[in-house]
Amino acid sequence: MKIEPDECSIDDLARRPGQSVPWTGVRNYQARNFMRDAMRPGDGVLYYHSSCAEPGIAGLAEVASAPYPDATQFDPASPYFDAKATPEAPRWVHVDVRFVRKTRLLTLAELRAEPRLATMELLRKGSRLSITPVSAAEWAVVTQLLDR
DNA sequence: GCCAACGTTGGC
DNA sequence: GCCAACGTTGGC
């Protein structure tokens, strides 16, 4: 899962140990669908800092809830307000995430240099999705690199 | 700030 | 359903 560290860095997340943090604000259907259809409580999350000086994986988190409606879509004062969404027919759902641990920064350059990650969705050319699936094999490679 | 890549919108 | 215009993402 990508996040701009200005919004909620791994250090910000670490200040809320054991707490569920609602992953609000996703307004892309594919990313939503990954949360809605492919994530289950307990699933591992690679916590990726984007749009910053040193983009890369900065820690691990885990999925901490089933998918449920994003409250910000109903709030006219929110930048994520969606006039076409109603509580009866919510358009946007998300999961909660929970801090697991901070890691060293595994930079985007390092990730790109690893041939075993060549087909990872996050690294695909032109990939902009803020939430992408990680295969078990990719997870194993990444966690190995993180502990190096 | 630039720009490639991609998603969304809306007229037709 | 097509596709041009526009908006967003995100590395550099």
Automatic annotation (TrEMBL):
Q: Where is the signal peptide?
A: none
Domain named EVE: residues = 1-144
CDD domains in alphabetical order: EVE (cd21133)
Extract the InterPro entries matched here. Answer: 5hmC_binding, EVE_domain, PUA-like_sf, THYN1-like_EVE
Q: Which domain of life is it from?
A: Bacteria
UniProt cross-references to SUPFAM superfamilies, sorted A to Z = PUA domain-like
Q: What is this protein called?
A: EVE domain-containing protein
Organism (species): Ideonella alba
